[in-house]
Amino acid sequence: CTVAGEYVPGNPTKPLHRCSIYSSTKAGEKLKEMLQLGASKPWQEALKVITGTNRMDVQPFLEYFRPLQRWLRKTNRDNRQKVGWSLKPIDDICERSGTTSYTSRISWLTFIIMTITIKYLQ
Predict the structure, then answer these.
(1) Around 91, how many Cα atoms within 13 Å sit in the side-chain half-sphere?
(2) Among 113, 120, 12, 18, which residue's Cα sits nearest to residue 65?
(3) Where are the alpha helices (DSSP H) in the chain?
(4) Residue 34 near residue 50, CB atoms below 8 Å
C-alpha cells in the first residue's frame, strides 16, 4: 500500500484500511519480485522484499482493523452487550469435557494463550 501511494502512516486521508493496489504498477512489480522467489527462499526473505524487514509485526494488522474494532466497541457499549468469556482452570475444562490426555491439555492451553494474547493486543 505504501509503494502504491495508497497508504501514508499518520495521514488520515490515506488510511491503511482504505488501501487498494488494484491498478498500481509499482505494487504489482513488488508483488512479482516477491513471488519470483517461489519456494526457493525462506518466507522471511519474501517478507523482506514486500515490507523491507524480515520480522513479523502485528501493528499493521491492528491498524488495519482499528476502525472495525472502534465500531464494534461503540456498538456493543451502546447496546449494552457483554463480550468475552471467563477463563477457567485447565484441569476443570479437561475433566468436564472428558479429555484428560496430554494432547487435549496442550490444545486447551494453546487456546487460552491465544485468548490472552488477543486480549492483550486490544
Answers:
(1) 0
(2) 18
(3) 25-35, 43-51, 59-78, 90-97, 102-121
(4) yes
pTM (global) more than 0.90: no
Is the pLDDT confidence value at 120 over 80? no
Instruction: Enter the C-alpha cell of residue 80.
Output: 449494552
Whether the CB-CB separation of 16 and 60 falls below 8 Å is answered with yes
All three cell numbers of 46, joined, read 519474501
- Give the number of residues written for the chain: 122
Can you read off the three cell numbers belonging to residue 34?
516477491
For 62-102, the pLDDT digits (tens) are 899 999 999 988 998 898 887 776 666 656 655 655 555 54
